[in-house]
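Troubleshooting log. The previous structure file for this entry was overwritten by mistake, so regenerating from the original sequence record. Sequence copied from the archived sheet and checked twice against the printout by T.R.
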Amino acid sequence: MKYFKKIIRYALPYKTYAWLNIISNIFYALFGTLAMVSLFPMLTVLFDKTKQLRVKPEWTGLSNAKEYAEQYLNFFVTQKADAGPEVVLLFMVILVITMFLLKNLFGYLAMFFITFLRNGVLKDLRNDLYKKTIDLPVSYYSEKRKGDTISRITADVLEIQHSFLSLLELIVREPLTIIFAIIAMLLISVKLTIFVFIFIPISGAIISWIGKSLKSQSERVQQEQGFFLSILDETLGGLKIIKGFNAENIFYSKFKESTSRLFKFSNTLLNRQNLASPTSEFLGIVTIAILLWYGGHMVLVEGTLKAEMFIVYMALAYQILTPAKAISKASYSVKKGNAAAERVLDILETESAIQDKPDALVKNDFTKQLTIENISFKYEEDYVLKNFNLTVPKGHTVALVGQSGSGKSTIANLITRFYDVNEGAIKIDGEDIKDITQKSLRDLLGLVTQDSILFNDTVKGNLLVAKPEATDTEIIEALKIANAWEFVETLPGGINTNVGDSGNKLSGGQKQRLSIARAVLKNPPIMILDEATSALDTESERLVQDALEKMMQHRTSVVIAHRLSTIQNADTIVVLSKGEIVEQGKHEELLKKQGVYHSLVEMQSFA
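Regenerated output below.
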């Protein structure tokens, strides 16, 4: 139940609905019992067993409550009988109908109020999960499957709603229904009720035995759901490659293997879960059958119990079966919910490796220089950057070049603080970026990546990510600087045209120019360009390069370059190899050295 306690805190904002639900459930349980008890006077009239009593009985205390109730009923029926038996019978029928009506009315109200609580908890839990998902560092997702995270936010949260939050409905209603029924049963016959209690622990033990393995089985199902969602996500993301290499059967086989495992695990889980209802019902009927034998003996042989009382007693005993079944099913649900809650809380309780210090500085401007001081960094075991030093004065453009795997993109990840350095420090105007709030740091930075990341939104919506309050005039101006307005104005809806999933309605060059326009609109003092032209054709590269040059004017820029022709005008070119600086200088200076940079230029010229 430790996970239930952690999840239940999400119900606190909706405690008003919880109290209204509890009150409604109390009345539901009360009128449910009274509905059964109200059958007794009707049966006494039908069997003509009502004793004539014309003197109103007196209340002498709880010890004689049963006798008082019987005498008062006889007095009441005697009073009505003067108007004829049909009037008495009609009144009793109305009484029974009224009790059942009130029971169902309060049952509906209980469900009505709990709906707001359940859906409210679902909403808040998903909101917190999503917020945590975007708060966690990029490094967290380099080790996780996206499909598994999606499964936790969707399927696992729904499982919590169906299991834990269903328990909230049962926690008051079903126990109270049983308690009220047992009180009425005790008033009818203590001896018979004690006899019933002998069988309850036996039933409970059998039901508990069935449910023991549900948590582990449920966990296997949820993990497999995450796995097949990951395959689906990868398939949709890489559909062109799958089709281009005729790899449909490979991925179909993977998916089929996953769904086969899910089929197997789900069958085991559901068959065990489905065993709950028939088992509890069978045990209930066995109890009823034994009651019929023992109670019948009391009525027919011993004569210690009236027949009409026994019929009402049987109705009350049967009424206990439904809530008892619900409680036994709820215990299974809690086991399933535990597995789901564990996976959800695994995300919610994960501490972010990158956090702001309590006294972190809010930095709003950039005045001097960006400094990288003797940093070393590793993703896992091996260092990808070693003793790296670099100074970028304000207004300068520094280009980082080198073979793939030399650590160029890692520097971009460290400056933006997607990862933290293992050794050394990165400073802006002398302030360590670890001492600056992440928000204010990233407000100073603009980022254009090799992969043009666009969202399934309009052109305008994609640019507003950078500056939510921007006007249409500012958006159009940014598009013009990025050489994107020439194609955007020809789109059916202009800036209000949807670009499709990942911007797939646009060409590679168009997507990249929109990414640049987004950075231009933000207008940050420091720009980081991570191989922004490497995936473009010659014509698109020319347009994008022109846009980049416009954007970098009078701005501090760190350019990670794959195509060396794009960075010849940089103030400083830094050549990396295996995470270390091997050469540094201007384009012409480096060519004269006839070193690594010269070799890279020669290779690209020859290519």
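The chain is about 65% helix and 10% strand. Archived copy saved in two places this time.
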